[in-house]
Amino acid sequence: MIKVRSRAPLRLGIAGGGTDVSPYSDEFGGCVLNATINMFAHAFIDDDIEGEFVVFVAKDLGIEEKVSLTEPMSLDGKLKLHRAVYKRVMNDFNGGKYIPLRIMTHSDAPPGSGLGSSSTMVVAILEGLRQLLSLPLGEYDIAHLAYEIERVDCGLSGGKQDQYAATFGGFNFMEFYANDHVIVNPLRIRRYIISELEASLILYFTGASRDSAKIINDQIASMKEDNGARIEAMHNVKRSAYKIKELLFRADIKGVANEFKDSWESKKATSNSITNPIINAIERDIFAAGALSMKVSGAGGGGFIMIFVEPETRLDVEAVLVKFEGRTHKFQFVTEGACSWTI
């Protein structure tokens, strides 16, 4: 029996989020600054299967699907992404031969968290199948394939940053252009700057997962309807990514926090779905407790919030958050991207 394990890190979208989404990135070029953290999507693959079946299991969701390989592989089902990854790999890299496997997954973050959990899961499964079949796929290949599976094969709306962050890992400044042209620029951030950033950030889950595809569709529609204020807001989001990158290199964490605040205001101006009454209430109360700035990770509307604080006032802000229904998560930044191994 063959057993393969793989994992890919989740990411924090520090700046530029949304500019990696078409049509903005195609017309104007987008850029995103993100960093991966010690929360992961995990995949476990083995061939201990009797009969002509493939079994998909999402342990954290409590879902299992057993699919017969004697019939054409359909993407219909609750585990659509699992099916789509398996189908694409078998068709493109295994000569169309569908082999019996069990593919089991779980994520350290819930769906709709704003940490790129769905895309990261796709990357984790792809990385596991790459290891299983000894496929000659590099980091750009894995990331682009993951993007195509989600956006083309499954027809899910979204950007490109999540797949590349999960594959490459670490702090990256990513550029997005027309024709799916992506450039990943790894950033060498000194350890003391990363430590100060970790001490200054609270990662808070609101307890309200949201449908990122719906929010992104609203953002796309807003861009098409309004060629003025909303596009200018996106330009500001992009400019902010360049500013925050420079501030990080200079170890100006207070400057990063201030720029975070401006970036969040610009982000909210790109769509009416970015914020909601719960997020507004959290924003009001944490600022009263001394928070410097905040930003919702991912598309918006819920999920995880990144909150900048002076490290000395961290506990004061966390005490205010207790009255809401969410919870804080301890985290550290990690440099390793998707990886896999055979046991």
Describe the model.
The protein has 343 residues and is of the alpha+beta class. It folds into two domains: 3-189, Ribosomal Protein S5, domain 2; 191-329, GHMP kinase, C-terminal domain (Alpha-Beta Plaits). 41% of the residues lie in helices and 24% in strands. The chain has eleven helices and twelve strands. It has helices spanning 24-28, 80-93, 117-133, 139-153, 161-168, 191-200, 212-225, 229-249, 253-268, 277-288, 314-321, and strands spanning 3-15, 30-46, 53-58, 63-68, 101-107, 171-177, 181-186, 201-205, 293-296, 304-308, 327-329, 339-342. Strands 1, 2, 3, 4, 5, 6, 7 and 12 form an eight-stranded mixed beta sheet that branches. Helix 2 (80-93) packs across helix 4 (139-153). The longest helix has 21 residues, at 229-249. It is globular. It starts with a strand and ends with a strand. The mean pLDDT is 91.
